[in-house]
Prior knowledge:
- Two copies of one chain form a homodimer.
- By secondary structure, the first copy, chain A, is α+β, with helices and mostly antiparallel strands.
- Chain A contains eight helices and seven strands.
- In chain A, a hairpin with a 2-residue loop joins strand 4 and strand 5 (65-73).
- The longest helix of chain A is centred in the C-terminal third of the chain and has 25 residues, at 118-142.
- The radius of gyration of chain A is 18 Å and the shape is elongated.
- At the A-B interface, strand 5 and helix 4 of A face strand 5 and helix 4 of B.
- The first copy, chain A, binds a DNA duplex through helix 8.
Amino acid sequence: MENYLFDFIEQYMPLTEEEKKAIVDLDIIRSFKKGTILVKEGDIIKGGYLVIKGCLRSYCIVDGEEKTTGFYTETVPIVPVFGADDSRAAHFVSCVEDSIVTVGNPDMEKETMEKFPRFEKLCLIISEQLLEKNLASFADFKNSTPEQRYLDLLKNRPGLLQRVPQHQIASYLGIKPQSLSRIRKRVAQNGTV
Amino acid sequence: MENYLFDFIEQYMPLTEEEKKAIVDLDIIRSFKKGTILVKEGDIIKGGYLVIKGCLRSYCIVDGEEKTTGFYTETVPIVPVFGADDSRAAHFVSCVEDSIVTVGNPDMEKETMEKFPRFEKLCLIISEQLLEKNLASFADFKNSTPEQRYLDLLKNRPGLLQRVPQHQIASYLGIKPQSLSRIRKRVAQNGTV
DNA sequence: TTCATTTTTTAACTTAAGTGAATGAACAAA
DNA sequence: TTTGTTCATTCACTTAAGTTAAAAAATGAA
């Protein structure tokens, strides 16, 4: 099971056997049932999550409505926010499906960082990469219509629509469920897809 | 002049005199004329910028049109993307006004990191904080109308509208200049502001 | 299976952004 | 000063999303 985690990390830097062993010893892999809420808004952040199997969703609640801010799956493996030492979560995170994830923990992370200083560099690279990706997504979002956003999602994350309720996709795209339904109809008719 | 930089860094961690001296020795403060293009899309990233005085703007060009992705001023002091070792810029960066900025440099940064390992931690904290902020902005953007975005910008970055051409603000808000003009008229009439 | 709940679709209507075109204002260069 | 350019505003028209409401379909639990 830890192999998923090794593969992920080794995209950025090779791991020594000693490091791998240390990671296994951390015992950070957990299973959660569909619907489990991993993080509540305002919680002290416990570290990052990495999805090994399943799907997590981050969202916030505005005027009683859930606004989905992200979906995290095997192919989009990394997660919400690492967070400074005592920062608080801005979003909820819940399981869209039964999921297996690695779960961070601040003490453990600190300890590991001290033992393997290379991991700090690793976190920096990952964080910068996430930032860069997010800036790019934001720019794309600004400069496209809801329909284009839907088509992009279909292209870039095929399968997500099969796994996630449509109204959650809609709020992720920044539109109402009715509009998404309309868009799907339009797209189907025009054979744009 | 370096004091701006010290103040910025010391928001995150206190600096020793030795570190301060090392920073001064780096000699990384530069002035640029309004209109100067600091980064072109596709350039190898040279490191971060920090605005001491003036205003930078990041943008990309889609179908011949400039799409503004960010404004960086004294109050929003930090910048585009640090970038992995050989990553390339996704955006242009230019000076909206005559500006004084600190300019990174990869060799220098690497050297400084080695001499002062604490700086790696600093970069990690900054990067995570930027990521967090950006995730929050993105979520807000998704869940608000163009008019609300305009009002938010007016509230959160007063003065920006006086410093930057309106059509650049418009593309930053993800709308056309005509729409921004309409929104301003609407807002002025309804006394929403 | 049945019933209740959630999710998705459809429709009529309202609202606001996009488009294309024209005008006026501000600004810089010759 | 004149000229050309860029920028902001306005208008008429088109397009699509929001809103409200209702119905249909899918899902899950008793």
